[in-house]
Amino acid sequence: MLTFLYHRVFTNDKQNFQAMKNIYNITEYLPVRYNATLKQQQDRDMCFDFKDGILSTTVKEAFLRKVNEITKGGKTEWTICFIPASTRDKTKRRFSKLAAAFKEAGYSVKENAVFNEYDTEAGHINGKSSNPISSFGFDKNAVMGQKVILIDDIITRGKTFNMTAERLESLGASCVTGLFLAKTINPDWDSHSTYNAEDYEPDYNDYDDYETYENYNGSYAQDVEGWSDQDIDDVFDGDPEAYWNID
Fold this sequence. Notes:
The protein is of the alpha/beta class and 247 residues long. It has helices at residues 2-6, 38-51, 57-71, 88-104, 123-126, 140-143, 159-170, 190-193, 220-223, 229-235; strands spanning 9-11, 14-16, 22-29, 78-82, 108-109, 114-116, 136-138, 147-155, 175-184. Residues 1-20, 122-128 and 190-210 have low confidence and may be disordered.
């Protein structure tokens, strides 16, 4: 967890993580626990709508523009795929309209390159795997030799994306670029996360008072998975039970 936080670089809307994957986002998502400006509330609503399968003209056109920017107008060497949601129904609802828009624009879209082998929404009953892609299936033939654009709604820590991207590359994808509607921002982290890792070697003792593990003792997210109080506040809006619904 700390490695991810300390070794990321934000440059406008492009993020370079330790794994050196290219990651783009269209807007930002401010967690609900923070007071939002009008623009931030509109962006929140846009993210919630997208999760529910509502594809506005604004969001559709933003995705199309960003993909055109990434591919530099080329289409034949690129394949567009999606990171599945927690269930098959959610995945279909969330991405089917966007997939259709990309197809109409002439892109190669492989909706089942990464798919739900089984639903994970009942994780709070059966126990949840620490591997976020354990329920994913992969179609090797869909990505072999292709440059892949891997799309999802919101990126916070990047674990699911990085693991999915690495799997696709192991199956023959020549490279994987992430594209997200939004990246999560946390005002409490600004001073720790907006720097060039090549120019700064962090003193980990500086953060002793930042990561705490007290407020959510007894929860699976903290006691088993090791999420800090700050992570649960940021990612799950202070509700550790929301861990079971993470996509």
